[in-house]
Amino acid sequence: MHSILVIVEMPSDNKTKEDSLAWSSALQELRTVAENNKAVEDFGGNTWLIRAEGGLPFLTHLLSATEREKQRCRLLFFEDEPKWVRSYQPD
């Protein structure tokens, strides 16, 4: 396995203000941890591409946070390096 794309679903409107604040705090912590890990690409929002080599500790941290804060997430596994298609190529 090469990598895992993780998308955490945004909190629903029926969540309490406290729940939303708790997720915002957890999200900020996750972004800080991701910044320090070259195996993790943060796409902003609630989306990360995590390389299997070197990124699994972050994945564990992320999944623990989503479970603790009761957030749903989706995972997409890539056997090979993802082939990205860019919509704009600068000159």
Report on the architecture of this protein.
This protein is an alpha+beta fold. It has one domain (3-78): Alpha-Beta Plaits, CATH 3.30.70. The protein has helices at 17-35, 52-68; strands at 3-8, 40-42, 47-51, 73-78. The chain has a 4-stranded antiparallel beta sheet with strand order 2-3-1-4. Strand 2 (40-42) and strand 3 form a beta hairpin. Helix 1 (17-35) runs antiparallel to helix 2 (52-68). The chain is globular and about 45 Å long. The N and C termini lie far apart (34 Å).
Name its key features.
91 residues; alpha+beta; Alpha-Beta Plaits; 4-stranded antiparallel beta sheet; 2 helices; 22% strand
Summarize the structure.
By secondary structure, this protein is of the alpha+beta class. Helix content is 40%, strand content 22%.
Q: How many extended strands?
A: 4
Contiguous runs where pLDDT drops below 50 for at least 5 residues: none
> Considering DSSP H and I runs of 4 or more, what fraction of the residues is helical?
25-40%
Radius of gyration: 14 Å
Shape: globular
Query: Could you give the order of the helices and strands?
Result: EHEEHE
Number of domains: 1
Q: Assess the beta-strand content as a share of residues.
A: 15-25%
CATH architecture: 2-Layer Sandwich
Largest sheet: 4 strands, antiparallel
In round numbers, the mean pLDDT is 89
CATH class: Alpha Beta
Structural class, from helix and strand content?
Answer: alpha+beta
Layout: helices, strands, pairs:
Blueprint (H helix, E strand, L loop, with lengths): L2 E6 L8 H19 L4 E3 L4 E5 H17 L4 E6 L13
Helix pairs in contact: 1-2
